[in-house]
Each structure stands twice: as C-alpha cells, then as structure tokens.
Write a structure and sequence with these properties.
Length: 403
C-alpha cells in the first residue's frame, strides 16, 4: 500500500461519458412461438397436449393470479372453447395431475431463459438510450420456505433482476449442499444468454458476493460489479474504514421523509489511484454511504462501505446513490410481491423442479405486469383474470412492445 493514503486517492468529480452501444433487437414474437424453444421431456409416443400450449396456459394463469399448480388447471378449465383453441388446445384439456407431472419435469433454468428472452425482446427501447444510461442488474437469493425437501432443507433460488424494466433475466437453483457463491457464475451465464453480451452491464450484489472470483468473472465478461463490504472480508473492510473520509467532500446527499421517518443519505466516493490502494481486484472506487434516520425524535446513524469497478467518470456519486438504492428493487418489487400477492412461502410444492418452475412463472407474471405499466401487481392480476381473452390476445400477438 502507498505510504501516504491521501496520495493514493482521488476525490470523484464529474466527467462526461458516452452512451453504450445499442442493444440489438430480437424477434418480437408471441408467447407460443417463444415457448416452442423449450424441449419436451415427454416420450413422443402418446402425447395429447402440445408442450407450448401447456406452458402458455401456465404463464397466463399466473399472470392472472394463479398461485399453485391446481389453480393453473382451474384457470384453464374456466376458459371458453375459443380461448382454449387460441392457446393451442383442441376439444380436450389436461387434468390437474397431467399438468403437474409435466411442469415438475422441466428444466427451470432453461424455462427462465426462454421466458426472460420473450419479455426482454418485447420491451427493448424504440430509440437510443439516454446519454448516461447503464443497465443495472440486482442479484439476490430467496428461500422458498414452504418447499422443504425430504431431508428438511429448503429450496433456495438466486435471481438477476433488470432494475429498469422489472424483468428477472435469469434464475438458478442453489445447490442445497452449497450456497449462493458457487451459483454466481452460472447466473452470469444465464443472463448473458438472454442479453447476448454483458459488456457495460453493472451488477449489484450484497456482501456475500464480495469475492475475488466474482470480480474476476464479471471483469472477464466486460461488465462491472458494485458490492458492499462487511465483516466477511475483514482486511478489505478495515482498509475501507481507515480511508481519510473526513477529508473527502460529500459527493451527493438526498433527503426523504414519509411514514413518520426522515432520512438523509450522504455519499462520498474516492478513486483508488494505485494498485495497492485496497486489496480487491478491479476496484476503481471506494464508496461510503451514511444513512441518518430520525423516527419519533430518535436519531440513528448507519454507515456502509462499498467498492465499484467503474471509474469516477462513469460512476458519479449521484449515480452510485441511485444504483445502490436500486438493489432494494429485487426485495421490494420482486420477492415481497411473490410472498404477498402469490403467497409463495405458503406454497408447499417440492417435487422435482416444481418449486423453481412455479417461481419462474411468478417472475414472468410480475415482469409482464411491470412492462405493461402496472404499479399494483395484485390489482393487475385481478384485472387480467377478469379479462382473460384480452390477456390471451396480448401474450400471443407479435408486435414490438406490449401496449
């Protein structure tokens, strides 16, 4: 490390950055066309119902609020003959057990990629992005509390959420004998499958993913990483805490109030100018956020330290403030909705890949409603259920963006 820490740091100052390369538009096809890419796990002999039709019903039913495999079948049986035909069924429809046996055999990672790709291509912006646009993807895990395996362990899934569109771009099942750390690279692979490239993308993750290998994985793919540093990295945490923060001016400050609380968030950022500045690979800046809350006259203060692999010219303090707050989207706008609106933690499906498959369907439903402008997902599902024919028309039509 440099003998004088002050000389190893540079206060972040504004610089102009260019816009990233435009995302290549994919085919804006209907749901049935997209689901045709999912391989059928059944024996070809004796197949009565097309796989794409079964999956389309599952997607539509969950968009309309179905929270279990049984509810998916009930939604199908309540459709009129014309609506069933539009989804790919003939005169007969499968029983609940038939739907269940098929859905729990699917590859959940592949299904998530197909559905995420379908949503993603239908929400590509029609023109060039704003000058300071950057795709920000939040990564976090969630335990399905009702899905206990035979040995008592619970199913744990890790997701990657596009914080701008509300679409879950990828989801992988965490090995019950491991943790999220080993699933990080497969999740990046899945996101890259959907986007085509990760160049310029910023990933935000919690302190569990402040890992050297993760930083290397992201950098190899020409992406960037913003992570919080806590006690799981004691050396790095001490280095960040000992930086001369008192001598660094405030880069950005926001004030919020509501629900009887006042909160001030102050961001300071410095550029590490020498390789020995901090011992975390590819880190370009060190960040400190101070949160001061006043509730019922009582004041509390919390300090968080982070590192980011973007240089100061591409990540100003006000950008960092916005991006760090976006990480909460995956908890507030995804996991919370799955629990409250779709009652995920009460669902006890645990056979085969069932837990991951139905979680993927919930992600797709939430992403669909977000991209159509819904702010209240519960209300949007009720509306979709009342207007099932309009829903079927919307998901099966081929046009650039959902209206």
């Amino acid at each position: 490390m440099a003998s004088s820490l002050i000389t190893a740091l540079t206060v972040t100052t504004p610089h102009a950055i260019g816009a990233p390369a435009l995302i290549t538009d994919g085919e804006h096809n209907g749901l049935l066309h997209a689901l045709a890419k999912v391989p059928d796990p059944r024996d070809p002999r004796g197949i009565r119902y097309p796989l794409a039709a079964v999956l389309a019903v599952a997607v539509c039913a969950v968009i309309a609020g179905a929270s279990s495999f049984a509810a998916i079948t009930d939604w199908l049986h309540d459709l009129d003959e014309h609506a069933r035909n539009r989804l790919g069924f003939g005169n007969a429809v499968p029983a609940s057990t038939t739907m269940w046996r098929l859905l729990i055999r699917l590859d959940p990672t592949l299904l998530a990629a197909v559905l995420a790709g379908w949503l993603h291509t239908r929400t590509d912006p029609p023109g060039p992005p704003p000058r300071r646009y950057r795709r920000v993807i939040a990564i976090d895990g969630k335990t399905l509390r009702g899905a206990r395996l035979g040995d008592g362990r619970q199913v744990h899934l890790m997701s990657a959420l596009d914080t701008a569109t509300g679409i879950v771009l990828a989801q992988v099942t965490v090995d019950t004998k491991s943790n999220e750390i080993t699933s990080f690279a497969p999740l990046l692979d899945a996101v890259e499958t959907v986007l085509g490239t990760l160049a310029g993308v910023l990933f935000i993750a919690d302190a569990l993913h402040t890992q050297t290998r993760h930083a290397d994985e992201v950098t190899i793919r020409q992406a960037h990483l913003l992570v919080q540093v806590k006690g799981n990295q004691p050396t790095l945490f001490k280095q960040l805490k000992r930086l001369p923060w008192a001598q660094i001016p405030v880069g950005d400050r926001t004030r919020d109030r509501g629900h009887g609380r006042r909160e001030t968030r102050t961001v300071k950022a410095v550029t590490v100018a020498t390789p020995g500045g901090i011992t975390f690979p590819h880190a370009q800046q060190a960040v400190r956020i101070t949160r001061t809350r006043i509730i019922a006259g009582r004041t509390s203060r919390e300090t968080a330290y982070l590192t980011v692999s973007l240089p100061a010219g591409q990540a100003l303090p006000r950008d960092l403030q916005t991006w760090i707050r976006r990480h909460w989207h995956i908890e507030n706008r995804l996991h919370h909705v799955r629990d409250v609106t779709f009652r995920e933690d009460q669902h006890q499906a645990r056979t085969g890949t069932g837990p991951a498959v139905i979680a993927t369907l919930r992600n797709t439903a939430i992403g669909w409603h977000r991209t159509t402008g819904a702010t209240n997902i519960a209300r949007a599902t009720r509306q979709a259920n009342r207007r099932s024919n309009d829903l079927i028309t919307a998901v099966t039509s081929s046009y650039p963006r959902t209206q």
